[in-house]
Amino acid sequence: MSSPRRILALMTGLTPYLSFDGTARDALEFYRRVFGGELVLATFGEFGRDDGPADHIAHGMLQGPVELFASDAGSGEPTLELRGILFSLLGTAEPAVLEEWFAALADGGDVLDPLALRPWGDHDGQVRDRFGVTWLIGYRG
């Protein structure tokens, strides 16, 4: 776990921020196993928050080839409920890596559309992971 002072960093681009119902640590550790990278975590206790258990995640970041923010919702805050959205990882890594990510995300989740060659010549597929996040993964040729 890193110091809360390391939590805020200069970020560029769009980074999803997911709000979980007590499973942020599990989700971020799962995504680190899938994508690699470094986790930076701070708990409610470290942030001096009293709107949830002290060991819940007040702010977490996965920094690496795929970047995500996540936290556990405090009392009365909404939690993750995704509909009509998917996270696209089209062409973001070598084909073999994308295939590994697809398989890892499917572990405990659901393959919605297998990663396969499409009529237009590219490979893609969709998988909903065990935390309810849907991913579109693909590559050229």
What can you tell me about this protein's structure?
Pfam families: Glyoxalase. With 141 residues, the protein is an alpha/beta fold. The protein folds into two domains: 4-72, Roll (2,3-Dihydroxybiphenyl 1,2-Dioxygenase, domain 1), CATH 3.10.180; 87-140, 2-Layer Sandwich (Signal recognition particle alu RNA binding heterodimer, srp9/1), CATH 3.30.720. The chain has helices at residues 24-35, 44-47, 95-106; strands at 17-20, 38-43, 57-63, 68-72, 87-90, 110-117, 122-128, 134-140. The strands form two sheets. The protein has a four-stranded mixed beta sheet with strand order 1-4-3-2. It has a four-stranded mixed beta sheet with strand order 5-8-7-6, covered by helices on one side. It is elongated, with a radius of gyration of 16 Å. The termini are far apart.
Q: How would you describe this structure in keywords?
A:
single chain; 141 residues; alpha/beta; 2,3-Dihydroxybiphenyl 1,2-Dioxygenase, domain 1; Signal recognition particle alu RNA binding heterodimer, srp9/1; 2 domains; four-stranded mixed sheet; 3 helices; elongated; disordered N terminus
